């Protein structure tokens, strides 16, 4: 459906159920109109995609344009791009080309989905903040210890410390990006620090392949040796808070026949 056939606001525009999405790019400013619920669903899909790509990998435009779960025409009631939505002032082609290297509304809308500032509803913001808070608590409980007793903190204790420290969760940053900030804030409430441990692991041949895959999900494998009898020996490094969880899984998988030894860092 073309921009013209889909229409767009004329004169002073009542947003109604829609929200404004803003993009600042190459010192230029753009706005689009978006359905907050459809945009919210799409952002969750993008967030999950970033998780699969381990956060640091950039999502490219084609992954949005050709994603079967994302329908851009449901997210945007019009593919018109504005410098001011409420006054119905549309962006010119020269600015669009300078910023996005295209004037095609659908492609620009995909840029907005990746780079835009969404005016989420209060309910959406609260849900997203709660989700990111839970992710942060999970990361801290798995990766940090109480330096006084060398044990991990239970999630509830970390959550309470965050509340006491009045930690603010940033809706525009990933949970991982906020870990250092949150950790510094709650260190004034509870003794906590990020710590890793090194371990030597030996897995019998019968369980080696499955155990290796499990270890690879939890730890960084620094050294790996497959023995002539099919068993596996490795040196791994992992967050201290995940140590017991990994050992429990390996013991269950190998029926207690694995061997492990802590290595002093």
Characterization of the model:
The protein is an alpha+beta fold and 265 residues long. The chain folds into 3 domains: 3-118, Hypothetical 12.0 Kda Protein In Nam8-gar1 Intergenic Region, Chain: A; 122-193, Orthogonal Bundle (Arc Repressor Mutant, subunit A); 196-263, Alpha-Beta Plaits. The protein contains 11 helices and 11 strands. A 4-stranded antiparallel beta sheet has the order 9-10-8-11, with helices on one face. Strands 2-1-5 form a 3-stranded antiparallel beta sheet. A hairpin with a 4-residue loop joins strand 3 (82-84) and strand 4 (89-90). The longest helix is centred in the middle third of the chain and has 22 residues, at 122-143.
Feature tags:
265 residues; alpha+beta; Hypothetical 12.0 Kda Protein In Nam8-gar1 Intergenic Region, Chain: A; Arc Repressor Mutant, subunit A; Alpha-Beta Plaits; 3 domains; 4-stranded antiparallel sheet; 3-stranded antiparallel sheet; 11 helices; 11 strands
What structural class results from the helix and strand content? alpha+beta
Number of DSSP strand runs: 11
CATH superfamily of the largest domain: Ribosome maturation protein SBDS, N-terminal domain
Proper CATH architecture of the largest domain: 2-Layer Sandwich
What general form does the structure show?
A: elongated
The residue-averaged pLDDT reads 86
Order of neighbouring strands in the sheet with most strands: 9-10-8-11
Topology:
Blueprint: H1 3-6, E1 19-25, E2 28-34, H2 36-52, H3 61-65, H4 72-75, E3 82-84, E4 89-90, H5 93-100, H6 105-115, E5 117-118, H7 122-143, E6 144-145, H8 155-164, H9 179-186, E7 193-194, E8 196-203, H10 208-218, E9 220-226, E10 232-239, H11 243-254, E11 259-263
Antiparallel strand pairs: 1-2, 1-5, 3-4, 6-7, 8-10, 8-11, 9-10
């Amino acid at each position: 459906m073309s921009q013209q056939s889909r229409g767009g606001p004329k004169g002073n525009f009542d947003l109604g159920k829609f929200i404004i999405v803003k993009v600042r790019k190459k010192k230029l400013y753009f706005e689009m109109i978006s359905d907050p619920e459809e945009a919210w669903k799409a952002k969750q899909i993008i967030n999950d995609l970033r998780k699969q790509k381990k956060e640091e990998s950039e999502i490219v435009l084609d992954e949005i344009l050709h994603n079967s779960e994302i329908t851009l025409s449901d997210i945007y009631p019009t593919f018109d791009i504005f410098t001011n939505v409420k006054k119905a002032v549309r962006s010119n082609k020269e600015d669009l080309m300078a910023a996005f290297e295209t004037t095609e509304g659908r492609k620009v809308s995909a840029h907005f989905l990746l780079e835009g500032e969404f005016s989420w509803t209060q309910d959406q913001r609260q849900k997203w903040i709660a989700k990111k808070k839970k992710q942060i608590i999970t990361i801290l409980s798995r990766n940090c210890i109480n330096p006084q007793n060398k044990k991990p903190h239970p999630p509830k204790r970390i959550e309470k410390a965050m509340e006491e420290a009045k930690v603010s969760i940033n809706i525009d940053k990933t949970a991982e990006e906020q870990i250092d900030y949150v950790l510094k804030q709650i260190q004034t409430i509870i003794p906590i620090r990020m710590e890793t441990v090194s371990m030597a692991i030996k897995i019998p041949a019968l369980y080696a392949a499955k155990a290796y895959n499990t270890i690879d999900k939890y730890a960084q494998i620094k050294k790996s040796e497959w023995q002539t009898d099919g068993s596996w020996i490795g040196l791994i490094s992992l967050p201290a808070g995940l140590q017991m969880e990994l050992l429990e899984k390996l013991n269950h998988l190998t029926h207690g026949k694995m061997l492990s030894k802590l290595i002093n860092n």
